[in-house]
Amino acid sequence: MIISRHSPRRCALLALVTGLAAPVLLHAGAWSGYIQAEARVFQHDPADPRQHGDNLSLVTEPEYYTDWDDGQQSLTLEGFLRWDQHDPERSHADIRELVWQKAGDSWELRAGISKVFWGVAESQHLVDIINQTDLVENIDQEDKLGQPLVNLALIRDWGTVDLFMLPGFRERTFPGKQGRLRSLPYVDTDHPRYASAAGDRHVDFAIRWSHYIGDWDFGLAHFSGTARNPRLLPGLSGNGEAVLVPLYETIDQTSLDLQATLGDWLWKLEWLTRSGQGDRYSALVGGFEYTAVGIFDTAADLGFIGEYHFDDRGEAAPTPFEDDIMVGLRLALNDAQSTEALFGVIADRKDNARSYNLEANRRLGGNWTVELELRLFSSAAPGDPLFSFLADDHAQITLARHF
Fold this sequence. Notes:
Layout: H1 8-19, E1 30-42, E2 55-68, E3 73-84, E4 92-103, E5 107-114, E6 147-156, E7 159-167, E8 193-194, E9 203-213, E10 216-226, E11 231-236, E12 242-248, E13 250-262, E14 265-275, E15 281-292, E16 301-311, E17 323-332, E18 340-348, E19 354-364, E20 368-378, E21 394-402
Parallel strand pairs: 8-12
Antiparallel strand pairs: 1-2, 1-21, 2-3, 3-4, 4-5, 5-6, 6-7, 7-9, 9-10, 10-13, 11-12, 13-14, 14-15, 15-16, 16-17, 17-18, 18-19, 19-20, 20-21
């Protein structure tokens, strides 16, 4: 079970008891979710002989929703459970959401465990910081752990101000010794370090103002608390093996996300400046997506994506996105089966490291979906974060039954 030592479930239940103290009449709730089988097939033998080869896993993600008080109050529960054939660290469970929400005329209040997303870019979610990344799921960092929080949104004509109190920290998940798509050496998650004496009980705070002006949507935010991305330091395990030890530092981050919708064009920018992880630094990702509607006189749309990544720490940055270009294509057939595909290439401008990604999905009937992922890596030099993945080219196919 990936549940942090501060017990976010207890935080959520206390918040719910407070919110439901008065008698309420619950509407009949609704269950939804999916059960999924996943297969990964690797092209090469692993770089570490302890790592597995081809792999199977099973996932379920049930969700329950109910509301009352004429829809002004609601309760959402979303669980997650994965069994993995070979990697014990990837077999895990989480509460993605257990959140009570109350809405007023010009405000909304949420308390419990929830997920919050900030950002607009396609190839990197640079400013997204409320939730911790569930990295054992996928290296694209799209999957997030549930975060204990209290969130008050003040809704005004001049924009929405979100205030966050985050009581408790979730450690990032990493593949284990047997896992694929992991660092070399592996990350020892049993002995994390913290810059704050409060450790994983540090209370974080964030504020974000979001609004729009004409075709422009933007969000300006500040976060103060424990960094979600740890610095990985060389260390030794209990048996003297070389490992990487995560160090979670205390940071202050100010960020901006901006998107302009101009006809068939989307222009996007994410920018941040951060202190607390060495010298203050800045980073950005920005670019465009142009959509050609109804290509070749069909119902299909084809999008052309271009983005640039920059981090002013240069080669010292612990990220593959310090000076990189991403180009991609997005195809939506707009058919009855909702067939979509996204292909992208990210290239380092200095050392020619490349990563190639293909994601495609399609509905099968009314309750089934099939998804395909293809990830390839090339030309990464030693010291590049992608170097550890050079033997991990793979195809992944998932079949899901939705309910």
